[in-house]
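Fold this complex.
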Amino acid sequence: MTTAKEQYFPGLEGVIAGETAISTISGGLQYRGYGIEELATRSNFDEVAYLLLHGGMPTPAELAGFRKRLSENRVIPDAVVDFIRKLPRNAPAMDVLRTGVSALAHFDPDTDSNEHAADVRKAERLLARIPTLIGVRSRLKRGLEPIPPRADLDFSANLIHMVTGKVPPESHRKAFEVSLILYAEHEYNASTFTARVTASTLAGMYGAITAAIAALKGPLHGGANERAVEVLQSVGKSSNAEKWIRDSLARKDRIMGFGHRIYKVEDPRARILKNFCRELAGKIGGQASDWEGVADIIERVIWDEKKLPPNVDWPAGRLYHMMGLEVELYTPIFVSSRITGWAAHVIEQHDHNRLIRPVARYTGPADLKYVGIDQRQ
Ligand code: ACO
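Structure:
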């Protein structure tokens, strides 16, 4: 038996739990060697998705082929639509998305293969179909019929169109694309690690992604973008902000959208997205503009009092609110992007697999004597 070294790091903080060539956080966030700032400002989501799934930047022909495959794969089986139709109307959107992804496995010809090429095909299908699941669910919940995907729209415009029935205006599109790029991948975060642990048992892509969606839903992880907007709704006007946040901190409330296990001074994704939020809010004016002021005050007080920086979910929640999207769609939108990072990690895990199985430090009793049930009081 291998004996474990007696070292324990609660929450696995600081532990190197594996190797990856997909992204790094140390020395600035990079996806496959490309800095996130340059990707956010100069690239687009389709190109970044290709980079993550295929390992390098596409040529024009490769990108065109990728986009064609995505647009051809957007339709989901009628049986899955019917299944979603029969789910309770008030089931949380993230739970329905998790169930929908799990259901899609039964219709994928590559479900049972963990070969590299099959994994890439499944990843592309999931990337294409997750927006359809989100759109179908959102419309059925509102008593509306689903809108078929549009092959002529790019990934992000099609996603918004399937939810709202409208092609997003140009002013929204760049900021939304940037949010998808920034959400796409983040090393060994909780949901990605969940996907890798699942994949390491040689469970397939669908099982790993289903597990990852379950992990992302939690408010300490992706679910925070929905809670961040609740903070702003609860504050209301910028004139209330300082008192609101000081009272919350005095009560020791956890403020969603702040703090990060790795970023202790700045989450670069939050800084980048904030600029796009601010620009859009300036164009929209009114409450959107006031919320930028609220955000500034809350950021300043939390930094002064707790030295906690905002994370990416803080501006993302505001952005999606400005775009008029329902709050329960925010974390599913995160999924529509993070599927690229998760799938890249599942593929990498399958390509170089070793079962992930750490050890625990036991804290329970030992050597108890068994007492028969008829003798227990
Ligand atoms: N609000 C108030 N206090 C906080 C916050 C917060 N958002 N985050 C951390 N703290 C405090 C804790 O209360 C704790 O204080 P204490 O030592 O006085 O008890 C201290 O900071 C350390 O907190 P931990 O939870 O141990 O730190 P950890 O590294 O595990 O936290 C986490 C990371 C879970 C993200 C945390 O900052 C948090 O809960 N943030 C709010 C949820 C959130 O925004 N999650 C999104 C993260 S980004 C993403 O997943 C895409």
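The pocket of acetyl coenzyme *A is lined by residues 11, 220-222, 224, 254-261, 306, 308, 311-313 (CB under 6 Å).
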